[in-house]
Write a structure and sequence with these properties.
Blueprint lengths: L17 H13 L13
């Protein structure tokens, strides 16, 4: 994808759980970052 803006892709396997979601959200908030969450509910 061609863009002049900087971006990062991050993937979580077997998670995230309720504890680390809060930690991730806090880090995003502290760094003024946006995120898109795609949740796969298949087990």
């Amino acid at each position: 994808m061609a863009t002049k803006e900087r971006f990062v892709g991050v993937s979580f396997d077997d998670g995230p759980n309720s504890q680390n979601i809060q930690e991730i959200l806090a880090i995003l908030r502290e760094n003024n970052c946006q995120a898109t969450w795609i949740i796969n509910c298949v087990r």
